[in-house]
User: What shape does this take?
Amino acid sequence: MSETVVEARDVTIRYTSKNNSSVLAVDGLNLSIERGEFVTIVGSSGCGKTSFLYAIDGLLPIHGGEIRVHGGLVNGPGRDRAVVFQEFALLPWRSVLDNIAFGLEIRKVGKAERHAKARELVDLVGLNGFEDRFPHELSGGMRQRVGIARALAIEPDILLMDEPFGALDAQTRESMQEELLQIWQKTGKTVVFVTHDIDEAIYLADRVVVMRARPGRIREILPVDLPRPRTIDVKADPRFVRMRQHLWHLLHDNEPTLAAVQAS
Amino acid sequence: MSGSTVITPTAPPVPDQAAAPAMGARVWAQLGERPRLVRTASALSFIAAWQVGSMTGFLDERFYSSPTAVAAAGAELFTGTDMLPHVVTTGTELLVGYGLGVVAAVLVGFVLGYYRVIGTLADPVVMALYVTPRLAIYPVLVIWFGLGLGSKIVMVFLGTFFMVLINTISGVKDVDPSLIRAARSFMAPRSFILRKVMIPGAIPSIMTGLRQGFSQAIIAVITAEMFVSLSGMGNLISTYGQAMRTDALLFLVLLVSSFAYLAIRGLSAVERRLSSWRPS
Assistant: This one.
């Protein structure tokens, strides 16, 4: 039984550039996402993938088409969605625990209750012993664990992740990917995950949405039929390697080749 | 150069030269690690030189006074009843002007920092008033607000206001937009964002304004009182200056500076406490 939880139809997003001209960030985008699915969106910078993610959350208005979540039109942030930000976006003057409880505090959950919930999530993301630390005392990987815990604390159906591991070093990134898959398997959330890292996109996803830039459009949607649960070893699977090769060419073949650059 | 490291067994580091630098260099290095001792020594030798200078007649005591004379004047001022009303006057002007200045500047600063358009509209006016030498408009303030407390309170208010205002505006503007975005994503109402994101985010900058505003306030109250006033510490300093009472004048200056110094140290301590979450 599949149930569509996110439905984007003909979505157009514009923004005003520095020289005051209107730029199409996303143009005529169609996508539906099923309950419990892990969808990654990959593309070079400027392809509108983050804009689209923010639009699903309702942080960014769309200028054409429609986005429905659970059948309802998105016209602002909602209880059923939570974002994990690339730059963590933790309140630097709050402890780990109070950062995790941030969304619950906004929902007027009492202190004892929200701290209890936050402690559960501390367990889930493996931050035990760091509850009273401040963000600047944590490593990048730990800060993003707080970011993930904060998003999960409000019990959203859909987790929207904007290059969450983009600021981390390669090693931390791989272990965070593995942990994210475990958390996803445990919680059964629908995840929309934006990245520019091809390996990450394939490794995590049920489907990889490939976007191209100027204007941002979907170029291809690639189903990833690798078995789950996946470990890091899956990256050596011939199917994985073939997909990576394919995506690499998709993302790079609209760039001018070296020969073309030299000829011009 | 071959690029490989050559270890010469016959040339170990010479230990007695490395471990025992010249006596002078050693003392110098040790002093470098004890800045408090060096500062105290500096202050004491200045006072001693001043005292010796005036005792030997090298410094004319009428013009330069001496540490003992300043101390005696201080004792005289403290035991007498002359100083108290002046302290009360200046204290009142400072407290009222500074308090009103801080409250007004923080409120206006939040509006100008939060609403971009209003902030941009107000910017040239704020900047023009900020750089205006306020003492230049003081004669007009005396005409408008009188010779007494009123004109000084306004001077203190202005000095405080612009310092705190500029720091509050930049504090509000510099609140990380990603924090506001995160709060919005969690469906935070505006009032929540203001209370739990904007205000805490702007506090370190506001505290800097409070500290800088206080030094402006002190300067404003003393100069205004020295210029035109009926009473106050500046008035007293000016009176003693005209009477060539260098000893009393210097004592009063010292008193005002010490007070300002301690107050600013206190504000700095609060500032550090409230900014402890900032990565240094």
